[in-house]
Specification:
- About 75% of the residues lie in helices and about 5% in strands.
- It starts with a helix and ends with a helix.
- The protein is mainly α.
- Strands 1-2 form a two-stranded antiparallel sheet.
- α5 runs antiparallel to α6 and α6 (about 110-130) runs antiparallel to α7.
Length: about 170
């Protein structure tokens, strides 16, 4: 089971890196399409970023709950948050790379988005460190940092929603 998890985790990381590099080199690009969901209209790329972020936001607390309430199922269920969060990061990485490579006349404001992305990457890395064989050596530090990155991630998502959905439309 561990080999399966490591193989697919590495595969998702490699696919993410290839897609991000292809976007940065302008080899691959998603066409701009507006999609309206529940009266909110955004581009397809923005919805991809939201789907990835929301998955990570809801799946992150899933692991500790399973660990405490159903410890017998922990090894069987470990694949879900690990692979799911990697797929969420893949979606957010596509969104972030496309946003960063937009032309100068249409460049986005990266304030909270870049903080969310950094917190999510650090949350993912500390999560991997917590389930790796090296977890015993750095357990206290990793647990503290993981909780701090999770707090930052959730706080900045709330600020990002307030900033982009509530404040920005009122100024345009």
């Amino acid at each position: 089971m561990r080999k399966f998890l490591v193989f697919f985790s590495c595969l998702i990381v490699v696919v993410t890196l290839i897609l991000v590099v292809a976007i940065f080199l302008h080899v691959w690009r998603l066409p701009y399409v507006q999609i309206e969901v529940f009266g909110i209209s955004n581009s397809k790329v923005h919805w991809i970023g939201w789907i990835g972020t929301m998955y990570v936001a809801f799946a992150t607390p899933f692991y500790p709950v399973i660990k405490r309430r159903f410890p017998l199922y922990l090894k069987k269920i470990l694949n879900i948050p690990v692979l799911g969060n990697l797929l969420g990061v893949l979606l957010v990485s596509i969104h972030f790379a496309i946003q960063v490579t937009r032309p100068a006349d249409n460049y986005p404001h990266l304030g909270t988005g870049i903080v969310i992305y950094a917190a999510m990457i650090l949350l993912l890395l500390t999560g991997f460190l917590m389930i790796s064989p090296a977890r015993h050596k750095f357990s206290k530090q990793t647990l503290f940092l993981h909780a701090a990155y999770a707090t930052t991630f959730y706080t900045v998502i709330i600020i990002h929603i307030i900033q982009d959905a509530i404040l920005v439309p009122s100024f345009t």
